Every structure is written in C-alpha cells, then in structure tokens.
Amino acid sequence: MRGLLTFIGLLVALGVTAILMRKQMTSVQMPVPVLQAPTGTPATAVTPVPGNATQQSQQIQQQYKQALEAATQARPMPDNDK
User: Fold this and answer.
1) What's this model's pTM, rounded to 2 decimal places?
2) What pLDDT, in 10s, does the model give residues 30-75?
3) Which of helix, strand or coil describes residue 3?
4) pLDDT interval class at 24 (50, 70, 90)
5) Distances from the Cα of 72 to the Cαs of 12, 38, 46, in angstroms?
6) Which residue ranges make up each domain of the chain?
C-alpha cells in the first residue's frame, strides 16, 4: 500500500513538472515584441546611421547617453499653494 501511494505521488509530481515545462517552452518560443521609439523623440533618432560598424556603435552609444541624461534631469515640482 505504501509503495502504491509513493508511486502515485511520483506520477503526480512528474505530471506537474511536465505541465510546467510545456508552459515554459511555449513562452520561450513566443516572438518578442519590437520596441518602438517614444512618441516625443524625433524621427532621426530611429533611422539607421550610414557607415561602418564602429561608427554605428558610437552613434548608438551617443544616443543612449543622451537619452540617459535626459531621463536623469531634475523636473520642476509644481506649486501646491492652494
């Protein structure tokens, strides 16, 4: 009796593992959505840069640096003198 319950428990654990693995594998195979540029950026920031890979890499790094600096700038706080 004890062996039968152990075997049933093992089958249940195997079934749960199989279901979780199938969910994991289907989520990996889903296509990743393409990131879009924020609506407030100019169209030139999205267009590819002509030139070799080094120039393109430097341009992307510069754009990233500018976006990071713009995001970290302090925003003015609104006055709440009501």
Assistant:
1) 0.34
2) 565 566 655 655 555 555 556 688 888 889 999 999 988 888 887 7
3) helix
4) confident
5) 51, 16, 21
6) 2-29+45-72
Write out the DSSP string of 7-76.
HHHHHHHHHHHHHHHHHHHHHHHSPPPPP---TTS-GGGTSPPPS-HHHHHHHHHHHHHHHHHHHHSPPP
Query: Is the Cβ–Cβ distance between 37 and 44 less than 8 Å?
Result: no
Q: Which of 26, 69, 19 has its CA nearest to residue 61?
A: 69
Distance from chain centroid for Cα 13: 31
